[in-house]
Amino acid sequence: EQDTYNFTHMFGPVAPLLAQTDLTVLNLEVPIARGTYSGYPMFNSPPALLDAIADTGTDLLLCANNHALDRLGKGARQTIENIEAAGLSHIGTARNKAEFNAVPLFDVGGIRVAIFNYTQHTNGMQEKDTEENLRYAVHYFAVHRAEKDILAAREAGADYVILCVHWGKEYE
To answer: Which among 172, 119, 117, 125 has a CA at the least distance from the CA of 149?
Structure first.
């Protein structure tokens, strides 16, 4: 079955603004995994969404959020594969220990910026998969983890460190 989705029109009003930035970062609060596409409460979108995002000039997708595991660990890995296939970078989810511990450094006009992404929770989805399947899948926020990441970023030469944390109570 051929993917016939096109999301380009959704970004039309903001695409010119996004194209003007030195580094465009968007929160991807939906898995892009194989299987049935679905909406609330457990999302899954077609890869065409990533093509439309890439067309805006977006550089980086934040993937650690409450919907990161809507398609479990396998879906999180498939999302990463689809993001990379669309030519985009991602943080907040990982396939292995090396990716999980990597320092995401970006050159922004000659300034070295490290950006980390964490989530407070994944809507309880971590209870529906095996520990092995979920190992390294999502960066959950913890103060000790953030401190470790900040130190690693400084050691890697970051001029600035940005933490993007998905947290809080829904609808508040």
So the answer is: 117
In a 13 Å sphere around the CA of 116, the CA atoms on its Cβ side amount to 26
Q: What is the pLDDT of residue 1?
A: 47
Between the two ends of the chain, the Cα-to-Cα distance in Å is 40
According to DSSP, the residues that pair with 91 across neighbouring strands are 62
What's the pLDDT score for residue 171?
82
| Percentages of the chain per state (helix, strand, coil), in multiples of 5 | 35, 20, 50
Neighbour order of strands in the sheet with 25-27? 25-27, 60-62, 89-91
pLDDT for residue 107:
97
Q: Are 69 and 125 in contact (CB under 8 A)?
A: yes
Report the pLDDT value the prediction gives residue 3, as an integer from 0 to 100: 58
Cα 115 from Cα 101, distance rounded (Å): 13
**Regions of the chain with pLDDT less than 50:** 1
Residue 2, pLDDT score: 56
- Distance of alpha carbon 33 from its chain centroid, rounded? 13
